Structure formats: structure tokens, C-alpha cells
């Protein structure tokens, strides 16, 4: 994987994904390893994303690397009208690897073609966010002991959520069964259902939480955002339907874990937080180890 | 405009003389069965608006297959397959006659290529190719009803939304 970029989860073979997950396990056992000593990583955040940026910067710091970059386009030369092309060509000279978040779709692929150093896509608009997918896969494997034949429930905004799309695509490599729970307006798009049909994988669609969550191995929650609805009345109708409460977890499987890409608003009630099945904060911690593994893989250090 | 008799088809003389409303060429390429509505797109894709060779074209001609078709005759030009396949997006049924000394020496059909580079516009308004100076690149995911997946934003541009740059 040396000197490769990570733009889309599909850029990596199943074998390469598993290699990153194994390496993540190593970093979880020993997070402080000065493997990036003398290296400079540029973190270019053309739109703010505090969580992702801090996670990357924490990973780089724990590896002993140095960081240059910006956290907001307004504090960069973009505000002066510089093209992405020019920004990347310039920053390329200052660092050993670029981590980039950008609101325009396809910007990360474009950057990876211009840069001579590896580029990690930390989110390009509604398109891809592969490090999130890898940390989700790590969290699933860690809590379930395997990735094969799991029953995955995805809840909330399944139409616009890039995390759920990437997760469905990725988990389809391991014969998962999917249950999609969403309001009518935010259903899983046809292209992903068609993709699963072609692979012969099973999926079921529901409009609300049903008793069958007792069969779930993983419940992956996402936020239903008001601005996604064309009709505000529709939002009012469904806003409390997709909220997970502690009382709903009684009959769920002992191995079941609840994941969420965060930030959460109200879709997981706070009374769930102390349940041992709540895993979203550990999932965020796994993100740091996963990013350590990705940084080292792409730089050819591990 | 004059009449050509004895147009050669599949190496033999056609029984009925046919009246053509576009003049014959001695050497070059005839592109037939172009949808009339896409004539100028074909001209643009092949760069015919920038060459100095003699070109004649007719459009809104009657066609049983296409309703209204266009035909282009380019004198002294022979295309590589790779170049000619670029028009497949806008003229999938186009047929080429290679003319030498007024005779058809070869016939070709166009084939939709696996990758489309620098011809089509990505329909996603949030795609980087619509913001920066980037050559568009697509993988053809369906050839019958053309569907293109953008190399950059990974969104699909289909036939209905297809725009030629």
C-alpha cells in the first residue's frame, strides 16, 4: 500500500482492508509508537469537521509526526480565490502526506492525481469517507469477533448518509444481511439495493423499529435531519420514530452493539449510554487507532 | 448536389438506383445514420469544425430507422477506431463507409467504448469537474442505454442527462 492514496473504500482489496484492521489492532495494544518522527502531515480542512480533524491529529501526534494545515477554508488561500489544483501542488511540497476534507464531490480523487504524496480522503461532500468505513469495520470485527454473516440494521437517513452507503458496500464483501429502517423520504437508494440484488444478498426495509431488532448483531444509527425533508410536516411526523431508547433493547442479542458515526443529537436517547450495548464512544476511539494504521500503511512504514 | 447511381453496398451493385442529396466523394469517410438532432455534436466531437478538408453534410433526411437522419462526408480523412468510437454516445447507430476511388472499400460500425474521456459533462452540479479545470472521465456502466459513472464523484450520468462538452 506504500505511496497509495485512500480516496474510496473500493480502492482497497478485501485483503488490504483486513491488513489495515490487523494493524489497527496493533495500535490499539500500543498506541504510542514514534513511527512518524520527522514526517510532516498536512491536514487540509476546506470545511470544518472538528471530530474527524481531531481524530486525525490525535493519530498523527501519537505517532510523533508534525502537522501543518488549516481547519476552515476561510483561513486559507481558498478565500483569495486559489484553485484546489494550485493549493495541492503547493502543499505537496511541504509534507509527506495530505489529509483532505472538501465539500466538493470528487475533489479527493482529483487531489490524489495531482499530488505526488499520498492523499487520504477525510470526506468529499456526499461522496466518500473511507476512514470512517474502516473504523466502522474495525468496530464491528472487534465486537463480533468476525465480519462474516452478520445481521446489520441501519437506521435513520439512509438516502443521503454516505457512511451508511459505504458501510453497505463494504459489508457486502462478508455476506451480511441488511435491515433498513427509515422514513419513506429517506429510503436506501435503488442503486445500492440493486448492488445487493446482484450479489444475491438479503435485505429488508421497514418504516419503523420492529420486534426484529432482536435479531440484530449491529444497529447502526444515523441522524434524521430536518433539512432533508421537502415538507416540514413530514419531518414532524417522523422525528420521534427513529429514536433508540434503552427500553427497546431488552430482547436484543447479548453480542449486539449500537454504532453511530457521531455527532448524535437525539436519535439515541441518553438513557442508552450506560447500556453495555452502546458502543459509539469506543467506536470514536477506534477511529484514532484506525487512522494510525492507515497513515503508516500509506507511508509504507508498517 | 447531384445523383449517384449504382451505390455499392456489401460489395455488390444495388438493384435500384438511389438518389442521394449529398455529393459523392472520391476518397474519405462517409458517416451515415447519425440522428439529425446530434449532427452538430458529432461534428464537434470529431473536430470537423477545425479542419480544412472538404466536408459536405445533409441533415433531416428521411430514415426508416431513425426518423430523421444526417449524413456527413469528409474528403481525405480516415479515422482510427478509437477516434470514431467517441461519437458512440451521440450516434450509437452510426455506420461508416470508407471510400477509395468512389468505391466503398470498408464498412464500420461504432462501438461504445469502456471509458469516455473528455467528451461528456458530469451531471452532478457538485462534482469537482464542474468547478475546476479537470478533464472528465467516465466508466461506461451500461452500453445499451448509456450510463456513465464519473471517475471523480462516482455519480451516474445517464442518456437523458448527457451533455457533450
What would you note in describing this structure?
The complex is a heterodimer of chains A (302) and B (165). Chain A is globular. Chain A has helices at residues 14-29, 50-62, 84-91, 107-114, 130-144, 162-171, 190-199, 232-238, 280-298; strands spanning 40-45, 66-70, 97-102, 119-124, 151-155, 177-181, 203-206, 218-221, 257-259. Chain A contains 9 helices and 9 strands. In chain A, the strands form 2 sheets. In chain A, strands 7-6-5-8-9 form a 5-stranded parallel beta sheet, with helices on one face. Chain A has a 4-stranded parallel beta sheet with strand order 2-1-3-4, sandwiched between helices. In chain A, helix 8 (232-238) links the parallel strand 8 (218-221) and strand 9. By secondary structure, chain A is an alpha/beta fold. Chain B has 165 residues and is mainly β. Chain B is built from 2 helices and 13 strands. Chain B has a 5-stranded antiparallel beta sheet, with no helix packed on it. Chain B has a 4-stranded antiparallel beta sheet with strand order 8-10-11-12, with no helix packed on it. In chain B, strands 1-2 form a two-stranded antiparallel sheet. In chain B, strand 10 and strand 11 form a beta hairpin. Residues 1-7 of chain B have low confidence and may be disordered. Chain A binds chain B through residues 8, 83-85, 103-107, 109-110, 124-128, 191, and chain B through 122, 124, 126-129, 131-134, 150-156.
